[in-house]
């Protein structure tokens, strides 16, 4: 690895890790097979650091009406997932304000990170919406959202 690349990686790592689910505040975010099974069955398993704990709590309490879909789970699964999401939810600036409707794509950090994306890009057939992270972030299923792994479909 070149010195420049290593320096760049060192600078970017603290910014990317909380979102990527790799670590938060120096603590590794463990994978959660139940989260992968239940949530990734319908959409990218968004990293817990993408939303503040209060947002995750509201989402988990309203699973029968999860953005227009019944995503109900048994009470034990809800308890387990809620505890994991709460433990690894966003901290710092990202946690200060819940995004409108608890939508990751409406959060200030998401808007800031995607401000250079043309509105028509979100409407491309292979993209469909800002919530379809995996359309552009090639490593999204692995929880990695590094801008160097972005490929915007045509």
Automatic annotation (TrEMBL):
Keywords: Signal. The keyword Signal applies. Residues 1-23 form the signal peptide. The keyword Ribosomal protein does not apply. It comes from the Bacteria. This is Cytochrome C.
């Amino acid at each position: 690895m070149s010195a420049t690349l290593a320096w760049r990686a060192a600078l970017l790592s603290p910014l990317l890790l909380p979102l990527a689910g790799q670590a938060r505040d120096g603590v590794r975010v463990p994978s959660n097979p139940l989260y992968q099974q239940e949530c990734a069955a319908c959409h990218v398993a968004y990293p817990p650091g993408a939303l503040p704990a209060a947002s995750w709590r509201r989402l988990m309490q309203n699973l029968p009406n999860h953005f227009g879909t019944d995503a109900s789970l048994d009470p034990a699964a809800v308890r387990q997932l809620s505890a994991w999401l709460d433990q690894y939810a966003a901290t710092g600036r990202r946690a200060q304000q819940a995004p409108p409707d608890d939508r990751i794509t409406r959060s200030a950090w998401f808007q800031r990170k995607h401000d250079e994306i043309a509105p028509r890009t979100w409407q491309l057939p292979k993209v469909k919406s800002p919530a379809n992270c995996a359309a552009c972030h090639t490593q999204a299923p692995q929880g990695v959202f590094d801008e160097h792994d972005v490929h915007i479909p045509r």
